[in-house]
Specification:
- It is built from nine helices and two strands, in the order βααααβααααα.
- The chain is mainly alpha-helical.
- Helix 6 packs antiparallel against helix 7 and helix 6 packs antiparallel against helix 9.
- The radius of gyration is 19 Å and the shape is globular.
- The two termini are 35 Å apart.
- The mean pLDDT is 91.
Length: 196
Amino acid sequence: MDIMMDARGATPEEKQRGLAAARAVIEQSGLTAEEAAEGSFAVEGWDEMGFPPDQEPSEGEYAAAEIWWAASNAAIKACCEGWPDEKRMQVSGLQLLHNPDVQLADRTTALRRMRALIQAEDGKHEYHDDRVFLLALAATAEVPDNSEAQQLVSAVTVAYTSLSLAGFHPNEPIEPKRQAVLDAIDALEAGAAPLS
C-alpha cells in the first residue's frame, strides 16, 4: 500500500514534491506508511469514542501517529510552498492509497466508472459500494474549492445510498432512485468541469 496527497488545486509536480517529503519522514522512522497511518487511526478513533480509559492507544500507536502527522505536515509544507493561506487551508494532506485504480482515476474515467456502477446496481446489497464515493472524490480532485467539491460528492453519495439500499424498500420503484444518482453525477460533472 502507498500514500497519496489530498491537495486540491495542486499540480502533479507539487503533489509529487509533497509525497517525496512524506516518504522521507516515514522511511527515516523505520515504519511503513500503513503502520504510521494505523497509529493515527487508533489515536483519532479513541478521540472520537470520547477517550475511554480502557481503550487508550498503546505507546507504539502514539509514536506511529506522530510519524504519520509529521509526514503529513512535511507533505503539506513541500506541496504548498509559496501558496496563499486560504489555498493551503484546502489541503488535507496524506491518505493511504487502498485502490489506486479508483482513487487515482482521472476525471473522465471516474465519471464513466461511476455511471457504469450505477447502471449495474440492483439495490439488493446490505452495504453500498465505497467505489462510488472514491470515484466521486477522484472526479472532483481538481475542483479548487474544497467546500464545493464536498457538496458535489455528498450529493452523489446520498443519492447512491438510497439506490444501493433500495432492497430495504421493495414497494418503492428503484428507477427513480437510479435516475437521482445519475442526475447527481451529471451535476458533479458540470461542477467539476475544468475552467477554460
